[in-house]
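Researcher: We're teaching a course module on how sequence relates to structure. For the next exercise, students receive a sequence and then see the predicted structure as tokens, so they can try to spot secondary structure elements on their own. Here is the exercise chain.
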Amino acid sequence: HVQLVESGGGSVQAGGSLRLSCTASGSTGAMGWFRRTAGEEREGVAFINTGGGRTYYSDSVKGRFTISEDNTKNTVHLQMTSLKSEDSAEYYCAASTSGHYCAGLLRASSVRLWGQGTQVTVS
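Model: And here is the predicted structure for the students to work with:
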């Protein structure tokens, strides 16, 4: 069965950049990231419909984060720039099943695969 493996994350100063990557062991539909901080609701951040589809961003990251796909490797990347302290969170890669795509930010109820999570800290 398909699994997601995340990499990247870490600590950076405000204004800096980080890149997250997520590799699926098989085909997926939409892929992207949610994030969550302690005591807060999970927030959808950025998603892409795999196979050259559209991208979607939350208002809080639009213009600063870019999601892209390397479909030869079943991998998506999230390039995060101009990072702010409020971007600090645990980031979770998420995906819907193959053939199921999103028409906006992926809803948590549509997620069928989750990554292990990676911490991003902006100071």
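Model: If you want an answer key for the exercise: The two ends are 38 Å apart (CA to CA). The chain has a mean pLDDT of 95.
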